[in-house]
Amino acid sequence: MSDQQQPRPERPVLNGLVALAAVALGVGLVLALVAIVGAKVLGIGGSDGGSAADATVRQSLYLPTPTETDEGSGPLITLHTQEPDSSDGAATTEPTDTPSSEATSESPKAGQISLQAVNTAVASGERIYISGIYPGGEGAILWVQRWQDGAWVDFPASVGVTNGTFSTYIFTGVSGVNRFRVIDRDNGTTSNDIRVQVG
To answer: pTM score > 0.85 for this model?
Structure first.
């Protein structure tokens, strides 16, 4: 009888291991449930074929059944548009957008200066933007001149030529029609004159 009444010795290590195993099992079950729910929400994994979400996904990928269309008489792809000849309906061999001789004759030749103004009318004191082309004049300094009292007078502005082109702006307070040009003082080459209404 005395042996049965003795308390059992405590085993703290064994109790700790049992508690740790129980906690690990509980955490594992929670993580497994989270993984299963996440897989169903994201649509990962196999499907049982009966859920409404799977039916919706299948319907979004629906392709209509192909049907035959009427065959057109013309070409399916047009690579080059040509104007038909009025005599026999055959296409012409020359392109329709040929550059005119006037456009090619307007471009300046080497050693000539072509000048233009961006605006032909400005307010008094407003900038007058000018630009031009000077083929063969790379690095030249062009001086602006204004027509005044029957002669060309130097205007206090100059511009350099880069890659055959130049552009700058000038100011004037003289109202009325002003005529400007540029000149290469090294060889005396002058541009055409431009007219700008000021004021």
So the answer is: no
